[in-house]
Structure formats: C-alpha cells, structure tokens
Amino acid sequence: MDTALLSISSFFPLHWLMPQLAMHIPDGFLSFPVILLTWVLAIALIAVSLNRVQEEYQERTVPLMGVCAAFIFAAQMINFPIPGGTSGHLLGGTFAGVLLGPWAGSLVMAVVFIVQATLFQDGGLTVLGANIVNMGLIGTFGGYYLYRTIRYALGRDSFRGIIVGTAIAAWTSVVVASIVCAFQLAISGTVPLMVALSAMVFWHVMIGIGEAIITVIAVSYIWRTRPDLLYKAPRTAPINASRPLSPR
User: Fold this and answer.
1) Which InterPro entries does the UniProt entry name for this protein (predicted)?
2) Can you tell me the distance from the alpha carbon of 71 to that of 22, in angstroms, rounded to the nearest whole number?
C-alpha cells in the first residue's frame, strides 16, 4: 500500500517539514549516500532476478508476468479512504511474490515503479532505486518469504496456510517498508526519525490492512479458479490447466 498524500502538518508543527510523506519518495528527500546505496541494491536485485528468471522459469511464465504487472498497475490507480482524510492503494509486492515467486515478482514490481516514475511522476527518478528497494525488495522478497514460512508451517497445500500466510505477509511488508522509508528520510536529514516513524508507521499500519484484504481476495480467487498459477502451486488442489505456468 502507498499513501496518495499523507498530511502530517496538523500533527507535527514543524515549519520546515514538507506537508506530505508517502511511500513513493519524491526527488530531493534523500541524501546522495542513501540514493547511491539504494541504487546499488536495486540494480543488484534486478540483475540477479533477471538471471534467476532465465534459469528457472518457463517461457510460459512471461505472459503471466505481464498480466500480473498490468493488474498491479491498474489496481494501484484505485485509492481507498482511510481515517484522517487521506487514502491508500495496493502496493502489490506480496501478491506478485505469491503468484510469480520472489525473482519474477521483483522484476514485475521494478517495471511497475519505473513506469510510474517516468510516465506518471509517482516517485522521483533520482530516488527510484530507493523506491524499488523499499517496495520491491522488502515488499516482494520479504513478503514472499514470510508468506512461504507461514504457509509451510500451517500446511503447504492447504487453503488456510496460503491465505493466512498471504494476509500476514501483505500487512507486514507494508509496515516494514514504511519503517525502512522513515529511516532513509531520517538518515538523509529530511525529517527527525521519531517524526518520520510516527507519521509513516501510524498510517501504514492501517493501509497494510487494506493491502492484506485486497491481496487475500485476489489470491482466493486464483485458488478457486486456477490454483496452478500460484508459485509453488498446491499439489492437492484441482488443476484446471494441462501444465503449471510457474515452477514447482
């Protein structure tokens, strides 16, 4: 989830503070060392993901990646209201991980953020690396592996394991990403750490609930219609296709 606009001026009377904080960081909010470090991490993530996708994934997965990217991009255009006069929208990292796995899912999220930054000015260009790290690396990788841990603990092939894992991972990925974003802003000297944490985490705890609900609805629909499309598809679920589109 990502806030469209998070107004914190009414809570923190700091004249020098920009009145808006959001998960998509704009240009000018991060220091050069933070920008450089996050760009290195983002480029490394994309390079490794490309290599792993080429090695492990079937060619038939590529269309699914395109459909997933289109769905996430379209879903992010739909904002839902939260208390306080602001709104949030789907981030989609955990959904991409559940559907495509961490490697292909990370590539999909990186493409979505690049298109948003270059064509829609949603997030800055110089800080694109940070946005990819926060919402791609943490949202997709972190979300997927937390989902995977919970799913396997509750039953790899059970609907309960998949849905509980999805819900917890989706919510957690949003909150953790907001915490990392707050630290990046504080290290850059943009805003004091406690102010950034209070503003970001407070709102994203609620936004994460919306993220979890939307992700669970989407994954539940896939489970009922095409469970073979899920990454590490359940072996006991009815398979409606001749072959899975994702590796097992």
Assistant:
1) CbiM/NikMN
2) 22
Please count the other Cβ atoms lying within 10 Å of the Cβ belonging to residue 38: 23
Q: Is residue 238 part of a domain?
A: no
More confident residue, 59 or 235: 235
Please check the confidence at residue 139 and state whether its pLDDT lies above 50: yes
Please give the Cα distance from 122 to 62 (Å, whole number). Answer: 26
Place of tokens 């949603």: 122
Beta carbons within 8 Å of 1's beta carbon, 6+ residues apart: 23, 88, 89, 90, 91, 174, 204, 207, 208, 210, 211
Domain count, the chain: 1
Q: What angle do CA 164, 61, 89 make, to 5 degrees?
A: 50
DSSP 201: H
pLDDT digits (tens, 9 = 90+) for 192-207: 889 888 888 888 888 8
CATH code of residue 195: 1.10.1760.20
Reference 170, options 198, 203, 146, 201; nearest CA is 146
Quote the strand ranges of the chain, DSSP E: 2-3, 80-82, 86-89
Q: How far apart are CA 78 and CA 8, in angstroms?
A: 22
Report the alpha-carbon distance of residue 70 to residue 248 in Å, rounded. 24
Range of the domain at 38: 2-229
The 10s digit of each residue's pLDDT in 83-95 is 555 556 678 899 9
Structure confidence at residue 121 (pLDDT): 75
